[in-house]
Specification:
Layout: H1 6-18, H2 23-34, H3 40-49, E1 53-54, E2 57-58, H4 60-72
Antiparallel strand pairs: 1-2
């Protein structure tokens, strides 16, 4: 598996919290757990500073970034939530 950058990790973490229970959420959380950076705080602050998260929740921009990232990671066996 390709290692996520801290920013990618932070966006997918927030995205995973917004997903309903099911296979997509399970898979995204697995990616998040496998790619957790040593220091989470800077990654979370970076995502917020880029407008991808706000108050720990995914923004519309962050959702789009997460969907794009999942597509690039070839997570094609999942139905990505619109």
């Amino acid at each position: 598996m390709k290692r996520l950058t801290p920013l990618q990790w932070a966006v997918l973490l927030a995205y995973s919290h917004a997903l309903p229970r099911g296979p997509e959420r399970t898979h995204v959380r697995q990616l998040v757990n496998e790619s957790r950076p040593e220091r989470c705080g800077p990654a979370l602050m970076l995502a917020a500073s880029h407008g991808l998260t706000q108050d720990g929740k995914i923004t519309a921009t962050g959702k789009q970034a997460a969907r794009t990232l999942l597509g690039r990671l070839a997570v094609s066996d999942l139905e990505v939530t619109p």
